[in-house]
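Cross-check.
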Amino acid sequence: MKLISFNVNGLRAASAKPGFFDWFLGSQADLIALQETKARVEQLPENLINPGGYQSYFSSAKVKKGYSGVAVYLKNPPIQVTSELPWAEWAQEGRLLKVELPQFHFLNIYFPNGQKDAERLDFKMGYYDAFFEYAQSLRKSKPVVVCGDFNTAHREIDLAQPELYEDTSGFLPQERAFLTKMINNGYLDTFRTVNGDIKDQYSWWSYRLGAKRRNLGWRIDYFFASDELKANVTGAWIEPKINFSDHCPIGLALDF
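Predicted model, tokenized:
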């Protein structure tokens, strides 16, 4: 089973770039999860709703148009798809789709960014905690795979210039501690599980100052899998040469 996660920073903008559908269909993924789609399904053309026979599911922000949003594309029918966390205060921004598959629960999430102000950072940390409670409840029935833009680099190896960002949301101690908490509770950072501590591996680059060309990036996009699936993880990778967004796709291979 091949899974792809990609923050497209606007699905309509990304898909308008040459080669997007060649990449999308050429991936031959069983599941493609997109974040920051910035669109409601009624705003999308048919070739973005069911490309190449994929079934699609969307969750869009209720608070305003052109904001946040996630999508999941599947080759095979799921058991069930639900959107958003099951608490109203976390269910307004189109940040989550949960897909139940035969082997596991799959969560596609666009986690909040905390850089705007202290209130938004508090919202991000609250969302992290609510997500963790939800994932742990799902895990009682079957394993969990979660992917998406976590908006946090976990360790110094996960961003190019860590000394510059110690006081910046995205690399704050409490944000990093949450990812440590996940790992300590039996969720595998699959990229590190497969590849170890290889350096200079990032999934997001600022559009400023030639950051992509200089590889001054952050690894803030992840696939986590509950450790019941450790024996099923056969590959995990990053695709930095894909340039349809300020993020790039990441992937996970599972064998059942």
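The mean pLDDT is 97. The radius of gyration is 17 Å. Passed to J.P. for a second look.
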